[in-house]
């Protein structure tokens, strides 16, 4: 995946997250599309593609939503960096690993966002943060169950393979 395609995909994911996802909420749960796409791209294609998706998508969300500039991009970059580190240990293309990692990284991203937002803007009254984050993490994981196999299949189909030059 080229970095230009990753940047375009990040803009599309961020715009979808801010326009369509609020209407797709289930019991107050909303998925984090940019996180899901960035982690899947990191595991399926390359670290550069995942980091580009995380950075550009995070900046787009920060610019279009009333958030401090760079906060979402920072939290997504941290989570994508964790995914890249785990991707060095575990072989790429493992669908189950991607799905479990998206569930865990949803917690990391949201807790980091809450902590940083509280540090920048003041205390938020959210009650129990785990009860607030768990439905969204499950929703993001459900979306990853659909997107991860599709991404791996596309990568296997269209990726350039090394061949012996005779």
Tell me what you see in this structure:
- The protein has 166 residues and is mostly helical.
- The chain has a single domain (3-158), classed as Arp2/3 complex 21 kDa subunit ARPC3, CATH 1.10.1760.20.
- It contains 6 helices and no strands.
- The chain has helices at residues 3-19, 33-44, 47-64, 71-89, 95-121, 129-158.
- α2 runs parallel beside α4 (71-89).
- The protein is globular.
- The two termini are 27 Å apart.
- The model has no long low-confidence stretch (mean pLDDT 88).
Nearest-integer average pLDDT: 88
Largest sheet, in brief, is: none
Quickly give the CATH architecture.
Orthogonal Bundle
Oligomer: single chain
According to DSSP, the number of beta strands is: 0
Give the CATH topology.
Answer: Arp2/3 complex 21 kDa subunit ARPC3
The whole-angstrom Rg is 16 Å
Helix/strand-derived class?
Answer: mainly alpha
How many helix segments?
Answer: 6
How many angstroms separate the termini? 27 Å
The portion of residues assigned to helices is: over 70%
* Whole-number tally of structural domains: 1
CATH structural class? Mainly Alpha
Order of helices and strands: HHHHHH
Shape: globular
Low-confidence regions: none
Question: In a nutshell, what does this entry contain?
Answer:
The protein has 166 residues and is mainly alpha-helical. The protein contains six helices and no strands.
